[in-house]
Design brief:
By secondary structure, the chain is α/β, with parallel strands linked by helices. It has a single domain, classed as Rossmann fold (3-Layer(aba) Sandwich). Helices cover 34% and strands 27% of the residues. The strands form two sheets. The chain has a five-stranded parallel beta sheet with strand order 6-7-8-3-9, with helices on both faces. Strands 2-1-4-5 form a four-stranded antiparallel beta sheet, with helices on one face. Helix 3 runs parallel beside helix 6. The protein is globular and about 55 Å long. The protein binds adenosine-5'-triphosphate and magnesium ion. Adenosine-5'-triphosphate (ATP) binds next to helix 1.
């Protein structure tokens, strides 16, 4: 067995929206270079849990997040629930969330891909290389390479879903948080994306929410079910 390293350790994490307890004392150990699937019924808090991991959901008025989430890097571990606001942009480059409903930006296909890369200070050639590579990884390149300057909102639902996945991959994250990434794709495309994810885990750590049981069985190394809080 190859030795594995912890990448994220979720310790006794609980979430309340106002008075409403969503989940309580969730514990998950996520190993580097694995695919962890999070499953459970609709409304149980799966998307919320992923958004805690990149701190899009944080402790604030009306939102109560308890517990610890340790994020491990070469130089040690830190509890991301305690990160100062200033350090969140860096965290969100390393732990990237791909939304359940494609949150495309009101720009062209190319600019959707390039926006965050420009903010990172990459030059034009580096950006063009990363954009093409990521669009190929999600099997979208052949469909859009001739119309990269057209508006992303003109893409079909399945194309938009692949675009936001490509946009995340182009950032070269350490951890990819995927919220139902194949929900609007046909079976053949879903299988191709699954194969890409299995390939990708050699480089990164993946946490995926999926309601497709067969998909979870095929690709997940670990399956975690969120239980209803009593
Ligand atoms: N900002 C918010 N304020 C109050 N309640 C919220 C907020 N966001 C989500 N909720 C509620 O928290 C619960 C968990 O939502 P979440 O989206 O995490 O569920 P889910 O497991 O991802 O569901 P699905 O499988 O349908 O996507 C739901 O009851 C939802 O209505
Ligand atoms: Mg959800």
């Amino acid at each position: 067995m190859p030795s594995t390293n912890l990448k994220i350790s979720i310790n006794n994490v609980s979430l309340c929206y106002g008075e409403k307890m969503i989940f309580e004392n969730v514990n998950i150990a996520i190993q580097e270079h694995t695919i962890t699937a999070i499953v459970g019924p609709s409304g149980i808090g799966k998307s919320s849990l992923l958004q805690i991991l990149n701190q899009m959901i944080r402790e604030e008025e009306g939102v109560d997040v308890k517990g610890e989430v340790y994020f491990y890097e070469e130089n040690g571990a830190q509890d991301i629930l305690k990160l100062h606001e200033d350090r969140l942009p860096k965290l969100r480059q390393k732990v990237v969330y791909v939304a359940q409903h494609p949150d495309i930006l009101p720009f062209s296909i190319y600019d959707n891909m390039a926006f965050a890369l420009r903010l990172q200070g990459l030059n034009k050639e580096e950006i063009a290389f990363k954009v093409e590579k990521a669009l190929k990884q999600v099997f979208l390149w052949d469909e859009v390479s001739e119309r990269l300057n057209s508006h992303a909102s003109l893409l079909s639902g399945g194309q938009q879903q692949r675009l936001i996945l490509a946009r995340a991959l182009a950032l070269s994250p350490q951890v990819l948080l995927l919220d139902e990434p194949t929900a609007s794709l046909n079976e053949s495309l879903s299988h191709k994306i699954e194969a890409s994810l299995v390939e990708l885990k050699k480089e990164i750590t993946i946490i995926i929410i999926s309601h497709f049981k067969a998909q979870v069985q095929r690709i997940a190394d670990t399956i975690f079910e969120i239980q209803t809080s009593s």
